[in-house]
TrEMBL record, chain A:
Protein family per UniProt: Belongs to the ETF alpha-subunit/FixB family.
This protein's UniProt keywords: Electron transport, Transport
CDD domains per the UniProt record, alphabetical: ETF_alpha
Record-given protein name: Electron transfer flavoprotein subunit alpha/FixB family protein
Annotated source species: Methylomonas subterranea
Family annotation (PANTHER family): ELECTRON TRANSFER FLAVOPROTEIN ALPHA (PTHR43153), ELECTRON TRANSFER FLAVOPROTEIN SUBUNIT ALPHA, MITOCHONDRIAL (PTHR43153:SF1)
UniProtKB/TrEMBL annotation, chain B:
The name this protein goes by in its record: Electron transfer flavoprotein subunit beta
InterPro entries associated with the record: ETF_a/b_N (IPR014730), ETF_b (IPR012255), ETF_beta_N (IPR033948), Rossmann-like_a/b/a_fold (IPR014729)
Domain Electron transfer flavoprotein alpha/beta-subunit N-terminal: 23-212
SMART domains: ETF
Species this protein is from: Methylomonas subterranea
Listed transmembrane segments: none
Family affiliation: Belongs to the ETF beta-subunit/FixA family.
Keywords annotated in UniProt: Electron transport, Transport
A Pfam cross-reference name: ETF
CDD domains: ETF_beta (cd01714)
SUPFAM superfamilies: Adenine nucleotide alpha hydrolases-like
Length: 313, 249
């Protein structure tokens, strides 16, 4: 019977929402036990993980902060733990994408990336070609190593009471890699990857001042702000706002695109959104083909009018 | 220092793909093929590092069918010095690619391996990290800035979900490139002519020392569910009403 290990993602203090969502995926695989591994300097994320329903044990491996995010340091630890498991899973965030293939190579395993559905013990669904095709893949014999597209799953709720076990692995970690710094984009606003509403701006937003307008509207709606690659490349907003095939994959209840044409590299990141709205001056923009509600109009007129309409509500 | 860059031949990013009706894959006959865009960025970066005087040779490698020569020639025209094609007529999955590259690294002894962070066909995002793991080398994925720091070190800024992270790595190392690292140069006709006389060596995957490699089995390929057709509204007031009707406002 399967024994699943899920690697948690956290920021040192809080469990990342991607962990509870990936857990939902993991729970769909028939299993005997499901454990979560937490690597870090604080037990707090491990304590949170222990509260997630369906978890048997939380393995807490203490590591200095400056090593806890480094794939090269985590890899030997995960490989060591994996000996007791049939499946090793991780959220397909930038953290998991960095770490897991290194682990897979060490285990001589063919990794399944970015799974969006479970089809059995070792059979999964995932998108390829920027979301233009959906494949069903079967992992070969040996440890199943898979990353989970967290936003394809709803989070598992809290209410469980697993035990947290401290595990001392006593391994020599590599010294060839040093973390010099993490420039976190700090924001009081909702997190793009877990927000229930997202307003996204593209090249059509024109510049930083256009995004200021978008932020004001977002604040009225309690929404997060995202962007297309063109808007990030142009320097309107930082890289961590980019949505798409090769960046963040989101699934808010409401997604509104302002001045985004709808290239499929962008659409790949919003496939699972509840309601897609497009505001674009070009009636032939491809974004309208996927929009549930389309408005052919100038975004610079629409944004203040929407603000007004919300104020009158 | 020698830089090895891996390039993959993929369906061009502009092509609207069609899934074959029998579920066996996507239609690739007669479709435009190109260098994977992320790999093109890796080639560009290698050439810039050489131009800055930090490297003396840029070797480009591809694993795949004979047709990959086209992409290797394009990389040579950009400014790579030498190319190597590892011939293999079946599907080259990431672990197999990583093992082939590991074998080549053993023969060629580069100090730096540059690769695109993800191939836009399988969207796996695995091969660079696998290669780094197999070699026990440091890795820096999703690079948006690379600085050869001297004393056998390189500094890499990475695009991560939280923002930007900077690492210092000892050479030799594997770095995977993200979109904002650079903008690849356009190739001019004289360079295409010149590239024709640059060395392009071929060898067979079977001739490389590669251990037993498990493969994923792709059971079926299907077209994604299309979204139901939407509505057009004529004003912001109508938009607000439509949002309320959908229960999202
Ligand atoms: C390898 C690769 C990976 C990529 N990955 C991603 C990715 O992850 N995410 C991503 O987003 N892109 C990605 N791209 C880029 C993608 O192909 C498109 O180039 C990009 O999404 C375009 O951004 P955009 O829609 O903002 O700009 P454009 O395509 O230029 O569209 C701007 C739109 O704004 C409209 N507009 C202009 N002014 C106004 C106005 N006043 N009011 C209303 N509308 C207006 C225009 O009609 C137009 O439709 C990738 C590309 C490659 C090659």
């Amino acid at each position: 019977m399967n024994r699943i290990l899920l690697i948690a993602e956290h920021n040192g203090q809080n469990l990342d929402p991607a962990t509870a969502k990936s857990l939902t995926c993991a729970l769909q695989i028939p299993h005997q036990t499901l454990d979560i591994a937490v690597f870090g300097s604080s037990r707090a994320p491990a304590e949170s993980a222990a509260k997630l329903v369906g978890v048997n044990r939380v393995l807490f491996v203490e590591l200095p902060e400056n090593q806890a995010g480094l794939a090269v340091c985590l890899c030997p630890l995960v490989v060591e733990l994996s000996a007791d498991y049939t499946h090793v899973l991780v959220p397909a965030t930038s953290f998991g994408r960095d770490l897991l293939p290194r682990v897979a190579a060490k285990l001589n395993a063919a990794q399944v990336s970015d799974i969006v559905a479970v089809d059995g013990d070792r059979c999964f669904k995932r998108y390829v070609y920027a979301g233009n095709a959906l494949i069903t893949v079967q992992a070969p014999a040996g440890t199943v190593v898979a990353s989970v597209r967290a936003n394809a799953f709803k989070p598992t709720s809290a209410g469980g009471q697993a035990v947290v076990e401290t595990v001392d692995l006593n391994l020599e970690l590599p010294r060839h890699t040093r973390l010099l710094g993490l420039n976190r984009s700090v924001s009081e606003r909702p997190d793009l990857q877990s927000a229930s509403r997202v307003l996204a701006g593209g090249r059509g937003v024109g510049g930083k001042s256009g995004f200021d307008d978008l932020y004001r509207l977002a604040d009225k709606l309690g929404a997060a702000v995202g962007a297309s690659r063109a808007a990030v490349d142009a320097g309107f907003v930082p890289n961590d706002l980019q949505i798409g095939q090769t960046s963040k994959i989101i699934a808010p209840d409401l997604y509104i695109a302002f001045g985004i044409s709808g290239a499929f590299q962008h659409l790949a990141g919003i496939k699972d959104a509840g309601v897609i709205v497009a505001v674009n001056t070009d009636p032939n923009a491809p974004i309208f083909e996927v929009a549930d509600i389309g408005l052919v109009a100038d975004l610079f007129e629409v944004i203040p009018q929407l603000e007004q309409a919300l104020a009158n509500k | 220092m020698k830089i090895l860059v891996a390039v993959k031949r993929v369906v061009d990013y502009n092509v609207q793909l069609h899934v074959k009706s029998d579920g066996s894959g996507v239609e690739t006959d007669g479709v435009k093929m190109s260098i994977n865009p992320f790999d093109e960025i890796a080639v560009e970066e290698a050439i810039r590092i050489k131009e800055a005087g930090h490297a003396d040779e840029v070797l480009v490698v591809s694993i795949g069918s004979d047709a990959c020569q086209e992409q290797l020639r394009a990389a040579l025209a950009m400014g790579a010095d030498r190319a190597l094609l590892v011939k293999c007529d079946r599907d080259v999955q990431p672990l197999l690619a990583a093992k082939a590259l590991q074998a080549l690294v053993g023969q060629e002894r580069p100090q730096l391996v540059l690769m695109g962070k993800q191939a836009i066909d399988d969207d796996a995002c695995q091969t660079p990290q696998m290669l780094a793991g197999l070699l026990d080398w440091p890795q820096a994925t999703f690079a948006s800035r690379i600085v050869i720091a001297g004393a056998g070190k390189v500094e890499v800024t990475r695009e991560v979900d939280a923002g930007l992270e900077t690492l210092s790595l000892d050479l030799p190392t594997v770095i995977s490139t993200d979109l904002r690292l650079n903008e690849p140069r356009y190739i001019k006709i004289p360079q295409i002519m010149k590239a024709k006389s640059k060395p392009l060596q071929m060898l067979d995957l079977a001739d490389l020392p590669i251990t037993e490699t498990p493969l994923l089995n792709i059971v079926t390929t299907s077209a994604p569910e299309p979204r139901p057709a939407g509505v057009r509204v004529g004003s912001v007031a109508e938009l607000v009403d439509a949002l309320k009707e959908k229960g999202v406002l």
